[in-house]
Structure formats: C-alpha cells, structure tokens
Design goal:
Blueprint (H helix, E strand, L loop, with lengths): L15 H7 L12 H18 L6 H11 L11 E5 L2 E4 L4 E4 L2 H4 L8 H11 L12 H13 L4 E5 L2 H18 L6 E5 L8 H5 L4 H4 L9 E4 L14 E6 L2 E2 L5 E2 L2 H14 L2 E5 L23 E4 L10 E5 L1 H4 L15 H14 L2 H22 L5 E5 L2 E5 L3 H13 L2 E2 L1 E3 L4 E4 L7 H26 L1
Parallel strand pairs: 3-15, 5-6, 5-7, 7-10, 10-11
Antiparallel strand pairs: 1-2, 2-3, 4-12, 8-9, 11-12, 13-14, 14-17, 16-17
Helix pairs in contact: 2-3, 5-12, 6-12, 13-15, 14-15
Enzyme class: transferase
InterPro entries: AcOrn/SuccOrn_fam, Aminotrans_3, Aminotrans_3_PPA_site, Class-III_PLP-dep_AT, PyrdxlP-dep_Trfase, PyrdxlP-dep_Trfase_major, PyrdxlP-dep_Trfase_small
Protein name: acetylornithine transaminase
C-alpha cells in the first residue's frame, strides 16, 4: 500500500539504519590504510557528527565537524555565529560582537531587520520558486523599480555578483556581434576585483586568485586606475571596459570624477561599452543610491549584487536599450534567478535604501566615521580614505593591519581587510547610528593602541 503525505504530521526522524544506508561511504576505510587504524578516523568523525547534532553543540565540536565535512577553501575559521540583531552578532558561546563588516557589505539593513524578516516569511508562505519559464510579479516589480531609479532601460537577474559580471561579459560580446563588428578584448583596472568564476576572474587583478586556474579568458588586459594616460589603451578593438567607481577589494579607492569622465569620453570615441561594477559600492553604500551618481558618469551596463536582497543571494545587470535590444531569447539564462522569494526581499531593501532620508543618514554617519578614524589614525601617520560607509585605513604592512584586525576582534569589533592585506576595510550596515560608530571607534582605538605598544616593546 502506498503511503500518503500528510502536511499536518511531522516527518519521523531517520532511523539509525536509514542513516547508515544513506551514507554507506562514511564507514569506508581510508585508502592506503588497513586494520583498526583505517577505521579509527571515520569512527572519530562519526562521533563528532553525533555530538554536533545536539542543538547546543560546543564551538570546538562544531569546528571539528566543519573540518571533517566542509571544503577548506576559506581557511581555518574560529568564530561561529548563532544569531544577530541590528549591528550585533552573537557567537556560539554567547559573546556579543559589534559587526562593522555587514557580511562583506551585504547586510545593509543590519541583522534580522523586522520588516525584511516579515516580508521574507510572508513570501515564503506563498511562493518561493517557479523558474524563468514563467513570470512572477515580484520579479517584474523589482525590475520596474530598478529601471525607474537608474539610468537603465532593462534589468536582468541572476544569483551573485560574479554571475552578474559573467552576464555583462556575454551581453557586451553580443552587442558588438549583432552590429557586425565582433570584438573580444576586455579591459579592467589594476587592483580590480570582479569575481571568481572564469570570465570575471580574468578581469580580476590579484595573481594569486588566478594562477592555479589558468588559462583564463585570453583577451583580458589591465590598465592603471585613476590614470588618464592609461586610457589610450582603449581602442576600436576593445569590446568593453569594466570599472568599479570605488574599488572595494582593491583597497577602498574611489575613482576621481575627472578620471571617470575621461573614461566615458574615451569609450564613446572608440565605440567601447562602459560597464560599472557596483556589486560592493552600489545601493547606498557610497551615500548615493548608485555610486555612478557621485561623478555623473552614466555606464552602458551596471552590475549589482551584495546588498540588493539584504542577505539572500541575488545579482542583477542593468542595461541601456541599445545593449538590451541585441539580446535574444536563449542568449543567457538562469534557473534560480529572479525567484519570487528573493525578489520580494530585494523590493523591500530597495524601498528602504532609496529613501532620501536613509541616504542622508549614510552620508552623515559616514562622515562621522571618517572624521573619527582620521582623529585616531592621523597621529600614527595612517591614511584614511573612502566614501559613505565604505572606509579604508592604509597600514604600512599587511602584518600590522592583520594584527589590528585581530586586536579589534578581541575588543569584540569585527572589521575587514582589503588590498594587499594592508587596508583595514570598514563597511558596517547602512543603518548604523553615530552612537554605534562612536562605540566602534573606541574599540578600534584600543585595538590600534595595543598593537602599537606591542610593536614598540618588540623594537626596544
């Protein structure tokens, strides 16, 4: 007799037999080992797994479980966070941290924003996913709002920043192909970061990210950022230029208005598409809704991602009609992109961050943060740079910057690094208050002092 699904009756937990049947390889001996030694490691792993099923597993147990099961592409991670509220993260041991990373500039409304959580819960109870075989109103309304608020005529959705840049690469190639003048050459800038998939990686500067995966897209090159003379490299064979109006991963370096205006002019002269990557600096972080507004330079395409859905995965490409009209059905696509759940979250976020009062608070609080950092750092000869709530402190070495980051964590303040590891990158939620900033400055000042005192003691 066939069993029937009853949504009112919870599923029974799997039996020990069903677990072992589902994962028969978990007890398999390691290759090259024999006897009791071959069984010892898998047995230890199984013991850790059983312990960690406990909802209150200790941090050490969870770290061992992570070591046993997760790919080590992020290195060894010690901190384990269990919950967050506003600008506070609470770890597995109940310690509270002031979060000035915002999940690498993602959680623009802070953690567990009440309206965001309600929007997601309501949409999840109605419809999460249908694929792009069909339309859904949340996707349509989000696209409409992005077009209304920006230079663009059309919007395309995907699932991350690197996916958005991959799509932009394809759209740029198709634009020139459709005009009967196929171009393959792409240019980006020194210290740029555009993603880790193969096309976007080819446009990313840092050699360590790329070397193990070569050959990459061969038609990618780099020119100097904020350097007028470098723009001569853009010619009639250039398909597109990718630029971050504010380099984030590259070291929190704003592009000058003069440079971006000259870049636009040179692209127009050569028929080259200009693509702005605002994955990190867009959607309010600069104090403007879009960072291109700081210079007044309008791109042909723009990529967005990180903060758009407030913590759920989403990416977007905004396009002018001149480019969009060249894209045909089947040229590109995604199964998950533009799903009702993530688009409902993004609509809520966009409504908040596009509010003029919200953006004014970003500018005011960002100025307060920058001024406070300068007060702390100027006596030490440390440069502070950035715009809005994306600020960097330049240290002489990566070692010293890393030491300050660790000391800040000891003071229960979370901050990031960037550049060659020598830039302390500060990117809190866009909802931080001046009181939050003052608390962060106090903790960072203590961290910096402790590192400098230790350095002086070692020098003596």
């Amino acid at each position: 007799m066939l069993s029937t699904y009853n949504p009112a009756q919870p599923c029974a937990p799997p039996t020990a037999l069903s677990r072992s049947s589902a994962r028969p390889h978990s007890a398999a001996p390691l290759r090259g080992a024999s006897g009791a030694a071959a069984l010892a490691v898998p047995l230890a792993v199984r013991q850790v797994r059983r312990k960690a099923r406990n909802l209150r597993a200790t941090s050490s147990e969870l770290r061992e479980l992570a070591k046993a099961n997760l790919l080590n592409n992020y290195g060894e991670r010690q901190m384990i966070f269990r919950e967050g509220q506003g600008h506070i993260l609470k770890d597995n041991d109940g310690e509270s941290f002031l979060d000035f990373t915002a999940g690498i500039a993602v959680n623009c409304l802070g953690h567990s924003d009440e309206g965001w959580a309600q929007t997601v819960a309501e949409q999840a109870s109605k419809l999460c996913h249908t694929s792009n075989l069909y339309l859904n109103e949340e996707q349509i309304r989000l696209g409409q709002r992005l077009v209304e608020l920006s230079f663009a005529d059309k919007a395309f959705f995907c699932n991350s920043g690197t996916e958005a840049n991959e799509a932009a690469i394809k759209f740029a190639r198709k634009y020139h192909f459709s005009r009967g003048e196929a171009r393959s050459k792409f240019l980006a800038f020194e210290n740029a970061f555009h993603g880790r998939t193969m096309g976007a990686l080819a446009l990313t500067w840092k050699e360590g990210y790329k070397k193990p995966f070569e050959p990459l897209m061969p038609s990618a090159g780099f020119i100097k950022y904020n350097d007028m003379d470098s723009l001569d490299a853009i010619d009639e064979e250039t398909c597109a230029v990718f630029v971050e109006p504010i380099q984030g991963e590259g070291g929190v370096v704003p592009g000058s208005k003069e440079f971006l205006l000259a870049l636009r002019k040179r692209c127009d002269e050569t028929g080259t598409l200009l693509i702005f990557d605002e994955v990190q600096c867009g959607l309010g972080r600069s104090g403007k809704l879009f960072a291109y507004e700081l210079s007044g330079v309008l791109p042909d395409l723009m990529t967005l991602a990180k903060p758009l859905a407030g913590g759920l995965p989403i990416g977007a490409v905004l396009l002018t009609e001149a480019v969009a009209s060249c894209i045909s059905p089947g040229d590109h696509g995604s199964t998950f992109a533009g799903a009702p759940l993530v688009c409902a979250a993004a609509r809520y976020v966009l409504d908040q961050v596009s509010n003029p009062d919200f953006l004014e608070n970003v500018r005011t609080t960002g100025s307060h943060l920058k001024a406070g950092l300068e007060k702390i750092c100027d006596p030490q000869g440390l440069q502070v740079r950035g715009t809005g709530l994306l600020i960097g402190v330049v240290f002489p070495t990566a070692e010293q910057c890393g030491a300050v980051q660790r000391a800040a964590a000891a003071e229960k303040l979370l901050v990031l690094t960037a550049g060659a590891g020598n830039i302390l990158r500060i990117a809190p939620a866009l909802t931080v208050t001046q009181a939050d900033v003052d608390e962060a400055l106090e903790r960072l000042s203590k961290a910096l002092e402790s590192v400098l005192v230790e350095a002086e003691a070692q020098a003596a």
